[in-house]
Amino acid sequence: MKIIKISSDLSNTSSNYFSQARVFIDEAFGRGTLDRQTCDDAIHQWLIIDFDDDGNDVVVGYCSAEINQEGLLGILKTSVVHPSFRKSGIGDLTVKHRIKWLQEQNVQTIKSYAWFVDGVVPAQKMLMNNGFEPWGDIRGWWSGDHNWDYPCSICGEKCKCVARIFQYKD
Ligand SMILES: CC(C)(COP(=O)(O)OP(=O)(O)OC[C@H]1O[C@@H](n2cnc3c(N)ncnc32)[C@H](O)[C@@H]1OP(=O)(O)O)[C@@H](O)C(=O)NCCC(=O)NCCS
Prior knowledge:
With 170 residues, the chain is α+β, with helices and mostly antiparallel strands. The chain has helices at residues 15-29, 33-39, 90-104, 124-128, and strands at residues 2-5, 43-51, 57-68, 73-81, 109-116, 132-139, 162-168. Strands 1-2-3-4-5-7-6 form a seven-stranded mixed beta sheet, with helices on both faces. The relative contact order is 0.15. The model has no long low-confidence stretch (mean pLDDT 93). The structure holds coenzyme A.
């Protein structure tokens, strides 16, 4: 398995990787999620690549992070694992990888805004297993990210999803 960082000019990432990733990322969060994150210079992105039984490259996961507040605040933004590869430690790997990368960028604080969906926070365990503590919940956290063109996968154009805020305690 390898983790590749998508370069800002996209030169190191094949369109085949993007096509594979787009399907499961947009299915999880809503149409256009990958393309919007890719267009945002503040967002850093990684793809997790594995091999299928025939030895072909398969994109099994995606994650992103953002640095705000003049470099002081690092945010674990989006993590998605391809549905066929879940519950095998890839999500955990994406958390560890981004904590290390953000620490190398010398951020002082690391937070994550995790999705609360169908009564659970899917990312909660992988965050808490890696030193994050819950801080509080905010309803409609992503409302500004969604509209008719970019609907939320749950609420459509008016997103009311709840974010559970986590902070990293090292
Ligand atoms: C959340 C997600 C990234 C987890 O990826 P994963 O590769 O399956 O996670 P891991 O195998 O590394 O599991 C990490 C821990 O989380 C738990 N976990 C995994 N999926 C979970 C889920 N859907 N609900 C609750 N806990 C879950 C695992 O049991 C494991 O805990 P443990 O080691 O203490 O038993 C994946 O389910 C996913 O892509 N979901 C859809 C998108 C999403 O909700 N992303 C998070 C938004 S912030």
